[in-house]
Amino acid sequence: MATNQPSFPDAAKFANHVVNDVEQQTGHRLEVKDFDYSKRSQWLRAAVLGANDGLVSTAALMMGVGAVKQDIKVMILTGFAGLVAGACSMAIGEFVSVYSQLDIEVAQMKRDKMRGGVIGEGRELEDEGEKESLPNPVQAAAASALAFSVGAMVPLLAASFIRGYKVRLGVVVAAVSIALVVFGWLGAVLGKAPAVRSMVRVLVGGWLAMALTFGLTKLIGSSGL
């Protein structure tokens, strides 16, 4: 069935025509705001860092417990406890931090408003835009907790279905290593940094965290403390 809807180019011309008419009638120039991709990059980079934190801390915790306890249930419960505790800690820390930043920015806006005196129409529109750009503590806390949980799920899922002790540890290390490489690459791309250097740095850091936790826990456990 045929429709009378305009094609995409016609719709664009119609939108431009409407904007021109409004500008002529009101005497004000309408500006179309472009999407701020820098904010998206910051959020994505923070999410990658949060996921990397959940990955490394949970994997190291599981490896540490695995150094003295070969039972799969103990290892999984330890990892799950680390996931919940870490996600809550990340969420609370992010909420407090972003809320403090929000208070500072709101206070600065009030000081600017008092110094500005009478606010015109242009200033009101500017204030509305500033309010929309203010950080959201709840959103930041939720994103941080979710990112941490996603990273922590990697070692948990890798160890959940493997009964053999040595095989389980090897699979956890392999899965975490792959995830570290991926997170390192994403962090490099979003941060405009060299990819290979970033991947190696993240991978070596994750290995050191797991090795130190495993070795120190093994040492303390063998000493009978």
UniProtKB/TrEMBL annotation:
GO cellular component assignments: vacuolar membrane
Localization per record: Vacuole membrane
Major location (coarse): membrane
Its job: Vacuolar Fe(2+) uptake transporter.
Domain of life: Eukaryota
Catalytic activity line of the entry: Fe(2+)(in) = Fe(2+)(out)
Transmembrane helix found in the keyword field: yes
GO molecular function, one term: iron ion transmembrane transporter activity
GO BP annotation list: intracellular manganese ion homeostasis
Topological relation to the membrane, as annotated: Multi-pass membrane protein
The entry's keywords: Ion transport, Iron, Iron transport, Membrane, Transmembrane, Transmembrane helix, Transport, Vacuole
Stated family: Belongs to the CCC1 family.
Official protein name in the record: Vacuolar iron transporter
TM region positions: 43-62, 74-92, 140-162, 169-190, 202-221
